[in-house]
Amino acid sequence: MDPTLGDDGGDLSDADGAGLRAPGIAKPTPPTEALRTLLTRRTIVLSFWIIVLCLGLPHWLWTTSTYRASLPLSTMNDWAEGKACDLRFAYPIRLRTPGWARERIVELGGNLSALLGHDGPGGLLDFTIHPGDSDEEPLPPPRENVALTVVLHAADPPGTHEVTSHLEPGESILHLGSGITEAGQIADQIREITVPQQEALAYVLSGTPFAATEYEALRATRQTWTETSLDARNNRTFKPSTTYHLSFSLFVARNEPSAWAIEDALAAYVAPLVDALSSLSNFTITTQVQLHASFSPSIAGPTFDEASGEWKLRREDLSGFVNAAEWPLSPSIGEGSTINFVLYVPAAEYSPLVVADTGGTVWLVPQWGGVAILNLDGPSTPLKATKATDRTTLSATDLDEVMLTFADQLTSLIGLPSTPSGSLALRIAALQRERATALLLSTASTLGALSRLVHKLPNIPIPDTVATSVATSLRHIDLACQDLRAGRYSKTDSNLGALGNAQAASEASEKAFFEPSMVGQVYFPDEHKVAVYVPLLGPMGVPLVLAGVKESLSLYRSIRQKVKGT
Amino acid sequence: MKLAQLLALPATLISAVLAIPEYSEHLHLRPLPNGYLYAGFNFTASTSLSAYESQHFRYFPRSLGQILKHSGTRELHLRFALGRWDDESWGSRPRDGKREGGTGVEIWAWLDSGGGKPAVEERWSSLVNSLSGLFCASLNFIDGTKTTRPVLSFEPEGMHRGGGGGMELLHGTLPHEVVCTENLTPFLKLLPCKGKAGISSLLDGHKVFDANWQTMSIDVRPVCHVGEECRLEIQQTVDIVLDIERSMRPRNDPIPRPRPVEELECDESKSYHASDTCYPRRKEGEMAWSLSKIFGTPVRGSCHVADGDESHDISLEVSRDRAVEVLQGGSNETLVSHGQSQHVRAIRLSDTAKHTDISLPQQIIQEAPHQEQPPLYASRQITGFGQERGGMHTVLHNPHTYPQRIVYLESLPWFLRPYMHTLKVLSHPTTSHNQPATPVKPDKMFYTPALDRERGTHLELLLTIPAQSTVELTYDFDKAILRYTEYPPDANRGFDVAPAIIRVLPPNSNSTAGNEKTQDSYLRTTSLLLPLPTPDFSMPYNVIILTSTVIALGFGSIFNLLVRRFVLAEEVPRSAVAVRVAWVVGKVRGVVGGLKGRMRVGGEGGGGGGTVVGFGGAADVRGGMNGGSGGAEGRKER
Q: Alpha-carbon dihedral of residues A453, A457, A461, A466, nearest 10 degrees?
């Protein structure tokens, strides 16, 4: 099958018969090459290859490589997998027992911590009891890091509040009546306050790597209605943010009323709430009046109900009630989300306007804001006064009810828990814990996503800013975890607190993840590279490779011959 | 009588006399020669500064108020403009050109200068970006290269605390921007009545942007009155010049079509008038028009929302003899002029009537319409040819009998590189042509040279234009070559150069001429189209492929020269592959030949030729493998 593979191709014509070629004429062979020329040629080929491999290739790799700053990938993954932090929430309780003997207080404290500490396996809160050390009245301001102060009024004259308990609205203080002295009773009262908090925290943690199996036990015991209500609360709540812009708008179907006493109304109903919430976020307030506000064409519009003499707005229309195309509810500029509160005054001929089925005039749009309809009842309203300004201006009393509703909607839009209903301070503290946890979780997952992204896409450049942001984020998330465990929830002069640190960590991680210069390069397609390299490397590469192959083959042959010869 | 006098006063005077109502609106209509109509809409709203600081808004638009507060803007002027004001036939510009912009978008604002230059630039960028979102315009493209800081051309209109200290003026232009409906809609949304009632109901995108000349402006400035709290005032204006005949074409057939021959009105006195030639006859007298026909709708309702707003809504500036009818609700009355100002007739919209319409019949008026002469005529062109160099040529013509001082401002893009040493300002009197041109020395000159891709040129000249003379201003420039990615998709269209802005300064108080204005006025030239050398955009790949091929060719031949051995052609040994191929071909031929021989006895002789072909084929294969070294074939060996 292979008759031609003779050396040097001397007599190869035997394949198709020597008869075709004139016999006797030998094919001339080239003279044997001097060893020196051979060596020179091999040196040339070798030096070309050395230049290509040692100079060209590194140069090429260096000029086309993308800069990737080194990231602490393993730490990031630890956070994403929930290994870096064992989430516990310190819950220091201070016990005040005016008129009690010292030993009795210490004993009660010991009993209480034994009772609360054995609060089942699912407890996320670490209770510590600090028995009060002074009896003076009134109470000195609570020390730092006290989540709850319990005051026992056992020494008070009996009969005032026997077995009752009440919370102080502005502060986290629980007053217990004179009938409650036993550790078990006190523990029950405390639990009543803390169990919703535990449930809410477990809800936030559920489904994340931080939810250790022990929390799941608590989850199983939790009633389904709790979960549903937490779901509902979660769905309508705005994303945690350092700044919220509250925008109060008066939309009027015709051109009257064209003014409202909003400054007075805000000062009376919204400003106190906003002050109380200022430990969570900053709030800015803007107001506007818009005349000639028409319904969106996408809704059917109200229909007149003869029986009740009211205009009914169908339930399906509520979602399209706010005419986003025409009503200037543009989001605020700058950072933060805008919470819109819309007060709609229908035209006189469409008044009173109510929601069908319920007959209500107020509804909440999840993660957007609240809407209220104000029906000015025809000509007999106080608005139809003698002075022209009274006709065109809504007074603060007209706005009372609406503003109360808006304040209530604001609390649910920023996710304030409804329990314990007695104390706003405790509710805010609970929200602070939940927020810090949620931010910490989202930061952890963002860091994990960034780590996976960097791993998956080897082409994307990682600028130094990303590395810096990741470092900042990791530092703050670590601090947030420590703060949670130590019970430093709110911001102090020296410390950002758990919430502040979690917020800083979240912002830094988002900044790292959404670094614009990283995104652009991902879409640089490989086809472009081929188009650029082929015209250059093709014609240059082929002679180089062929020469290399030939020379190495001949070298190999000569070595083999030498070996054979010796 | 008192009311009548009030109504007769021009709107500007009224707002100065009375305490400012929180909101007022006004429409001024004036027919222009040759069948055009000027309509100037003016909407003024204000808010007290304390309400602005605490962000409580009533008639002042909240969306704009927020932006101004966020970006630390003290005074804002924003313009959207389209078309050209024909001052040869239409006379002087409305509002002295102060509410007018250059073609495209123009913005200038006084910003808080606290924090130094970077802080101001950040505020400016935040302002233009937010306004870009609010007005659906490409204002966000106003970056450092399109921003200048004029010195003489603008002065704050508002009354600022501290005498205007601590603020900085920035000016940006976007001559390429096409102003259209998407800019008008957000503009109308800022109004309290949103185009649903009052004179703003006439503003319809189809009509406004069908105009021959159109400019929209937004001006925000603080206004203080003695004994009152300072207020922040927003003035929105829309000025349009409509072709009456074109605007009145019916809605159901909006496409302009040529008229049938029978309907053409020809000037039969022309010598060439025939059945197939027609010289259009000049229209006699004034055209008939009405608001509802021109704007497609009558005025709907009224927008009297503020207390103390007693001014009239519409004023009509026509000759005293012109018949004007007002249809308000069902009633129909003739409008006559009041008081001293005989050319202006005023209407206050009724609060009860649903529709108000004004109609004027066709009429022949003997009295020539009064028209004010513009302070200056200006035009600007690019001269020269080729893609490398060009020149700018501006003609400023002063028709008046007194000299005028002007500020001439140009903000040029960086890719137009002017040579200031070629700047020449020559003046020659209009009356006598044989006098030689005399050079004019600018009183002051501010010039900021361009930096490539960072800053445009800013040129400001303070000039005196002699009486009744024409001043020509020329300079040469180079056209820069842009980078591949800096070209827009329509690169061959050319690049827009922003209009020059001319501020005509009021004459000095000791001037003797009596009837001059005491206010300065503005005019702008048209924008220019600058053709730049445009590359072939497949160039990068062509260059890559061409250079690669050349390099590979050079490399291949040198490499082969170095590495190959040269022998005689007959000494070339046959390569193993060639032999293998030749063998296979020979076998096949042998088989085919055998078959043929079996079929037809004596069919022989094709075999030899076949072998030769086989060798040739093998040689070709080798030649191909050796790439660029084709020149040495036949003499080379491995």
A: 10
8-state DSSP, B177: P
Strands annotated E in A217-258: 243-252
Nearest-5° Cα angle at A280, A276 to A282: 85
Residue B94 near residue B214 (C-beta atoms within 8 A): no
Give residue-wise pLDDT tens across range B114-158.
Answer: 888 999 999 999 999 999 989 999 999 999 899 999 999 998 888
Helices and strands: H and E segment counts in chain B = 13, 29
Residue B487 burial (CB count, 10 A): 15
Measure A373 CA to nearest chain B CA, in Å.
19
Amino acid at A553: L
How many Å apart are CA B504 and CA B491, to the nearest integer? Answer: 36
**Between β-strands B104-112 and B73-83, what pairing exists: parallel, antiparallel or unpaired?**
antiparallel
The phi and psi torsions of B220 (rounded to 5 degrees) equal -120, 130
B194 touches chain A (CB under 8 A): yes
CA distance A309 to A312: 9
Name every chain A residue with its beta carbon within 8 A of the beta carbon of B553: 539
Q: Flag whether the ipTM exceeds 0.90.
A: no
Find all residues with CB under 8 Å of B316, minimum gap 6, and list them. Answer: B28, B29, B30, B324, B335, B344, B345, B346, B347, B358
Question: Do the Cβ atoms of B638 and A536 come within 8 Å?
Answer: no
- For residues A462 and A68, what is the distance between their CA atoms, to the nearest angstrom? 4
Please, which residues 376-395 of chain A have a Cβ atom closer than 8 Å to chain B?
388-389, 392
Determine the Cα–Cα distance for residues B629 and B560; give it in Å rounded to an integer.
Answer: 7
Q: How far apart are CA B583 and CA A467, in angstroms?
A: 66
Q: CA-to-CA distance for B15 and B18, rounded, in angstroms? A: 6
Cα–Cα dist B448/B465, whole Å: 24
pLDDT in tens, B385-441: 888 899 999 999 999 888 999 999 999 999 999 999 999 999 988 877 777 888 989
Instruction: Say if residues B52 and B227 touch (Cβ distance below 8 Å).
Output: no
Helix %, strand %, coil % for chain B, to 5? 30, 30, 40
CA distance B433 to A102: 115
Q: At what angle do helices A224-236 and A396-413 cross, to 10 degrees?
A: 120
* Mean pLDDT across chain A: 79
pTM (whole model) above 0.95: no
HEC assignment per residue over A127-193: EEEEECCCCCCCCCCCCCCCCEEEEECCCCCCCCCCCCEEECCCCCEEEECCCCCCHHHHHHHHHHH
**Minimal Cα–Cα distance from B135 to chain A, Å?**
12
Q: Which amino acid is at B382?
A: I
**Inter-chain contact A255–B303, Cβ cutoff 8 Å?**
yes
Residue contact A28–B568, C-beta within 8 A: yes
DSSP state of A23: T
Long-range contacts of B570-573 (CB under 8 A, 24+ apart): B570/A27, B570/A28, B571/A28, B571/A29, B571/A30, B571/B637, B572/A30, B572/B634, B572/B635, B572/B636, B572/B637, B573/A8, B573/A9, B573/A29, B573/A30, B573/B637, B573/B638
Q: Return d(Cα A373, Cα A363) in angstroms, integer.
A: 9
Mean per-residue pLDDT over chain B, rounded:
83
Sheet containing B501-504, strands listed edge to edge, beginning at the edge strand earlier in sequence:
B444-448, B457-465, B404-412, B501-504, B521-524
For the domain made up of B377-530, the CATH class stated in words is mainly beta
Whether A15 and B586 lie within 8 Å, measured CB to CB: yes
CB atoms within 10 A of CB A464: 10
> How many residues are given for chain B?
638
Neighbours of B4 (CB within 10 A): 10
Give A392's contacts (C-beta < 8 A, 6+ positions apart).
A256, A257, A258, A259, B307
Measured between beta carbons, the chain A residues lying within 8 angstroms of B189 are 326, 328
Closest CA to B6 of B360, B356, B309, B325: B309
